[in-house]
Structures are given as C-alpha cells and as structure tokens.
Design brief:
single chain; about 300 residues
C-alpha cells in the first residue's frame, strides 16, 4: 500500500516538475527571443514604396506590410501559416445583400400606403363654397384694452429693470475681484513651487539619480540600436548654392552617424530620390533589467517617496 502511494506521489511530482519546466522555458523564450524587424523604403520621382517585416519567437508570430503611393496599405498577421488578420468574411457579405433585397419591397409598400393616405386627406378638405372666417379683426379688437393695461404696468417694470441692472453690475464687480484674488494666490503658489523645484534639482540626491538614469538611457540606446542601416540619397535644388549648403551641413553631422549612408548632391536639376534599409532586433529582457535596476536604486526610491 505504501509503495503505491509513493509511486503516485512520484508521478505527481514529475508532472509538476514538467509543468514548471515548461513555464520557465516559455518565460525564457519570451524574454530572450528577439523581436526582429526589417524595413525597406524607396522613392523615385513620385513613387514611394515601403515594405515592413517583423517576427517574434522564431517564425511563430510574423507581421508583414506593404505601402505604395496611390494605393491602400496591405498588411497581415500570421501565426505559423494561419492568417490571424485580415480575416475573410464572405458569408457575412451575402447575408447583408439578401437583407437589403428583402427591405426594398417593404419600403415600396410603405410609400404606396403613405400616398393613399395623403390623397384621402386632400379629398376630406373644406368645400369650395364656404367662406373662411378672418380671426385678425377679432384679435385686433381684443388687443385694445390689453394695450392700455400694459402701458399702466410699464412704469413699475422699468424701475425693477433698473434695480436688476445695478445688481448685475455689483455681481460682476465682485466676480472680477474674486478672479483677481485667485490669480494672485495662484502666482504665489507658482513661485513657491519654482523655489522647491530649484532646491530639488540642485540637491545631491537628484544629481546622483540623474547620472544613473543617463547611464541606463545609454544602455537602452545600445540595446535598440539597429544592426544594419543603409541609406542612399540623391537630392538637388533650384539654387546650386542651397544644394552646397545642405551638403556642408551634412558633413558637420556625419561623424555622429553610423551605418552605410551615401548622400549625392545634384547641382544641375531638382530631384529627391533614394532608398533605405533598416534591420535590427529588440529583446524584452533589456527593458525589464533596466526597470529592475531603477527600482533597486536607493536614491531613485527616495525621490519617488518624496514626490508621492
């Protein structure tokens, strides 16, 4: 009996270890496997073409897109060989067409009924020989005593309007006074906040934190740096002097660029043609590692506690 229980426990333990190993394998694969991207673009005259490709977890998840000038962008998302997006909805379109066809005879019936009702209402209108009573004369006769009564009431109403106008002016003056006071209080608070921010920036803890964050920024930049950059550009302006000035400005920033970049000026005609290629990979563990370092840094944690 004890041997059976031990074998059952062994099997359960092996299953649990296999499950834990699979979870760890998936976690490592998600963190270590890179997100690969490849972008190609070209421009000739008025034609622009852009091709984008990306993949994650080897060929498990892939994305591709294409754009050409004058056309809509075409893109797709695949899981192995199954297209997740866009999906084909052919039966849904057929259903919509049948529903639209069934609604057409209903609308025609409703229109015919409404026309019949309008015709019947026109037939039941007033006969031709009867005279229409003019209510305007009666209305004018009733208005005469009302105008006399209204004229008597106008004098006290004018006094009330004057008092109401004075109260309005007083209320507006009080409102302006309150707004000026609020603006003054806001300026005082702003000056106090500026002083606090200046003291916060000039403190030693903040300087150490900024230095550490700058180092992490450089690490992320190295992590995101593409492995291949290739650009070939040919340009020209109407004024040859402007073309030369642009080339001189490019020569100033050339030492700070990386990759295979070729710029060719054209002093004879106006043009802007070229092609480029960008290729690289990004891993998630770099971002997680940077976040963990920032969380474990003592000065950053103290600053966060002060701010919060």
């Amino acid at each position: 009996m004890a041997g059976i229980i031990l074998t059952i426990l062994k099997v359960i333990g092996i299953i649990l270890l296999v499950l834990v190993g699979l979870v760890l394998l998936v976690a490592v694969a998600v963190l270590v496997c890179p997100v690969k991207y490849h972008v190609r673009a070209s421009k000739k005259a008025d034609e622009i073409k852009v091709h984008i490709q990306g993949s994650y977890l080897f060929p498990l998840l892939s994305f591709s897109g294409c754009y050409e000038s004058g056309k809509d962008m075409v893109y797709s998302l695949k899981l192995f060989f199954l297209t997740l997006y866009p999906q084909k909805d052919k039966p849904a379109k057929k259903r919509k067409k049948t529903a639209a066809k069934s609604q057409k005879p209903k609308k025609q019936k409703e229109l015919s009924k409404s026309k019949r009702m309008d015709a019947s209402e026109e037939d039941t209108s007033t006969p031709v020989g009867e005279k229409v009573i003019e209510p305007e004369r009666e209305h004018k006769q009733l208005k005469q005593p009302e105008t006399v009564f209204n004229e008597k009431l106008k004098e006290p109403q004018k006094e009330k309007e004057q008092i109401h106008f004075i109260h309005k002016i007083q209320a507006k003056l009080l409102d302006v006074k309150e707004k000026v006071q609020r603006f003054w209080d806001g300026m005082k608070k702003l000056l106090e906040n500026v002083k606090e921010f200046r003291d916060f920036i000039s403190s030693q803890e903040t300087r150490d934190a900024l230095k550490f964050l700058n180092e992490q920024r450089k690490y992320i930049f190295r992590h995101l740096k593409p492995s291949k950059v290739s650009i070939s550009l040919r340009y020209g302006f109407e004024d040859p002097a402007l073309t030369g000035e642009v080339l001189a400005a490019y020569s100033c920033i050339y030492p700070f660029l990386w990759g295979d970049i070729l710029v060719e000026p054209d002093f004879e005609q106006v043009c802007l043609d070229g092609n480029g290629e960008l290729k690289g990979k990004v891993r998630l563990y770099g971002f997680l590692l940077t976040g963990w370092r920032c969380y474990r840094h003592e000065t950053i944690r103290k600053i966060i506690e002060k701010v919060m």
